[in-house]
Amino acid sequence: MEKRSPLCSPDRIVVLGRLKGSRFAPASPPLTRPVRDDGEGVSTKEILKMMTYELALDTVRDIAAINRIIARSDQDLARQLRRCSMSVPLNINEGMYSRGKNRGARLTTAMASAKESVACLEVAVAVGYVEKEGITECLEQLDHLVAALWNMVHRPWR
User: Fold this and answer.
1) pLDDT digits (tens, 9 = 90+) for 14-51
2) What is the pTM of this model?
3) Is 85 within a domain?
4) Does the residue 70 lie in any domain?
5) 20 is a domain residue
6) 88: nearest Cα among 50, 154, 145
7) Which residues form the domain of 83?
8) What angle in degrees, to the nearest 10, is found between the helix axes of 100-126 and 44-73?
């Protein structure tokens, strides 16, 4: 009786949905299209979504630095700012991969969280925790995010 090799042996590695060296599994086509370096094959819509997500991540990084300063004076406001600012990229990413009305709902939630972040930063300025000049760039980034999200929700791609 022939000794069989275990499934995890190097000669039976799974490749593209079939076992390597298996005479019973036909060759299957790849499950995804190959990646193109020239950007061809990626729609403008997808590029804008990725750029919006990247801007949201950059904004969270910038807000985190400001949040450390706010936390010295007001832990509750800092916690609120941290939660709402981190919610923006999370909801954008969830919305990008949702369908139908769920997509719009997630992007609307991201937009509302971005506006809440603006309010937290403005409150921090109003009570004197930070200077207006120190948060100008974050406010501009958040304003750009809100505009981009509004367009994604209210001007669907044709």
Assistant:
1) 443 444 444 444 555 555 555 555 556 666 677 777 88
2) 0.70
3) yes
4) yes
5) no
6) 145
7) 45-154
8) 30
